[in-house]
Amino acid sequence: MILPLNLGEKSYDIVIERGALKKIGSYLKLDRKVLILTDSGVPSEYAKSVLSACKEGYIVTVAQGEGSKSFDSYKMILSQMVKYGFTRTDCVVAVGGGVCGDLGGFVAASYMRGVDFYNIPTTLLSQVDSSIGGKVAIDFEGVKNIVGAFYQPKKVVIDSDTLKTLDKRQVNAGLCEAIKMAATCDKELFELIENSSDLENDIDEIIVASLKIKRHVVEIDPTEKGLRKVLNFGHTIGHAVESDEKLGNLLHGECVAIGMLPMCSEDVRGRLEAVLKKYSLPTGINSDADTLISYITRDKKAKGSLITVIFVNEIGSFEMKEIEITEMKDYINRGIL
Length: 337
Description:
This protein is α/β, with parallel strands linked by helices. The protein contains twelve helices and twelve strands. It has helices at residues 44-52, 71-83, 98-110, 124-130, 168-185, 187-195, 199-220, 235-243, 252-260, 266-278, 289-296, 328-335; strands spanning 2-5, 12-16, 33-39, 56-62, 91-96, 116-121, 135-140, 143-150, 155-158, 302-303, 306-311, 319-324. The mean pLDDT is 93. 41% of the residues lie in helices and 20% in strands. A hairpin with a 7-residue loop joins strand 11 (306-311) and strand 12 (319-324).
């Protein structure tokens, strides 16, 4: 299946096909220098499949985890591109999850003021969400995605066969992004996830439905001036949870799971909590509201003392609210502490 994402001159196709990675040369323009970015948690054969289709390819591997979305990694990758003489006609291919996509996309956006970027997401989280839409970034001073750009890929290739090498925790954490989009925009998708008795059998349908939601939002609002903020459901508090080092090594999707619960009605919270528990996702944390608020004040969505949040009163719909950041304390205390 090919889903076109229409953004005028910045339009591109999203290819969704089992086994696509094995014939990646037929989808991407690789007859040039190619920087293949992957991480240590991604099976090496995925990057090697891309390398075998390249005229001149170089694999760069960063450490697995959010810590690689740093200036150190960014500088190292740029150094490799300079070393091997990359020009504006060459490209970057990210092979991995959201970390590789965010980091690789930011490198591509800034090297020589922009080279072609392809994204091959290999985690469920990146396949249903972060691989499309053009948000690329690195973290800085403990703040997630604080340095970045909007830079659309030339193509995204999604091969759900890559999910077979993920452990159950990673799959469930990735599913949380689909739950997020379903809760705000698609009652039927939420019910599919809620009632699924065989996630592996339903996963392709879930991926496609999630991508259609995000595609619609991105086409209307590519640079997050309005509607695209709906995709931040669960992320304002979730990013704060992710930044709190005392909470341990929670995955991004697990943090989003926690972040959604305070931002919905009691009826929705009951259904949402049941779905999260079904997929072994966390529904509470051992922290305090003041600590989380300290991170929220540095959130890039904040405007002075105000922040825009997404609230779900009924599954499949949402309300956008602008509230005082201090008001978030009541939501946090009510929902997850």
